[in-house]
Amino acid sequence: MPGDLREGRIVIIGASLAGLRAAETLREEGFTGPLTMVGDEPHPPYDRPPLSKQVLLGKASASATELPTRRDPEAQWRLGVRATGLDPVGKRVLLADGDSLPYDRLLIATGTRARPWPNPEEAALDGVFTLRTSDDADGLAERLAAGPRRVLVIGAGFTGSEIASACRERGIEVTVAERGPAPLVGALGGTLAKLAAGLQRAHGVDLRCGVTVTALHGNGRFTGADLSDGSHIDADVCVVAMGAVRNTEWLADSGLAAGARGVACDAGCRAFNMYGIVTDDIFVAGDAARFPHPLFEYQMLSLEHWGNAVAQAEVAAHNMVNPGPLRRPHLAVPVFWSSQFGLNIKSVGVPTFSDQVVIAQGSLDERRLVMVYGYRGRVTAAVTVNMAKWLEYYERLIETAAPFPPAPGAADRATAAAVPVPSDVPDPKVLSHGPTVALTGYLPDRRLTMVRPV
User: At what angle do helices 17-28 and 306-320 cross, to 10 degrees?
Assistant: First the structure.
């Protein structure tokens, strides 16, 4: 590696939000060497949150979601080509077109892809969609604009719930099938999930919880699905919203600590190898990263959040071009948001890292409230429903490990004494979608075979 970290060759694998923000930060921090951006999609970096909102509502085209750039990253772009392997000894990235890219430092920002329907023949039926890319959104928006009789959504996480909301706003009949007990339960726990269930039904959603879809039917074109309770749904469109798969398979033979939960790294975004030894030339950021956070007992977090992708990319880029004493940790408190069925839901912290919740402000009946989450007597998260202005207040409570339940004092706090109740966070195995925050503990993704010299 060159002595001056502002020189040398840097390759970024992943040309989406985290990759773009990292590239911009590298230049802002004075990096002058050659920079290469590799992305498996042919499109320049674009914003994904509008795909399940404005694009499905017909208020914007997917092509209008291109991310604005803070500055020209002065990069060589290799779009429409996948990375297929990594040689960390020879310091080369292998590409699907047969080429290879040498690097001095590497940033892995490969993100996630939509989890496909497990039966390939059924998944290939015309009218069966996933929603992750701009091409996905274009195709689905076109089908919704044609006015289908009914849409079946499999999975009631944030993406599935936002798709259902868009369908109802368009006046389309929609059935949502969720393996868990309620929508959003994997992200927000049981109390707010009950509010989400009531809200969906009040807006005319045919919500089926505690069931799985056992088969999709059609003769070339999707016509309906069977459910585990013996019922059948006739529909013209099916959207599989069963969570995301982290794009780490290309690293299987790399020797890195990469698996289904992401690429493990330290708080400075430096990737670990499979023996838990930190690398000094390979970094990771965004949805593909799995990192420890001191506010959550150093558990490894995997996040699928816009804000985390930006913050972690900036930390990774800073650390790639600064020596050890000047490096900084990624300690941002996770924040995410969702708009559905007329509600603005915003979260700070990790709601799944909790054992109790309390309604600190507002009420479920008003559909305007702040739910605060606690773990072992301290505040770990807060979720606001149509009360986003309070998010910063509760973020400070999380950062200072304030006691739970929080003391009275907020201006429009509910007058009745709030009593904490169990947060009722389910085992992810009972969900048909993945949680947007995964607490992955200390365990590696696979057992290691220790080879000792004879």
Answer: 40
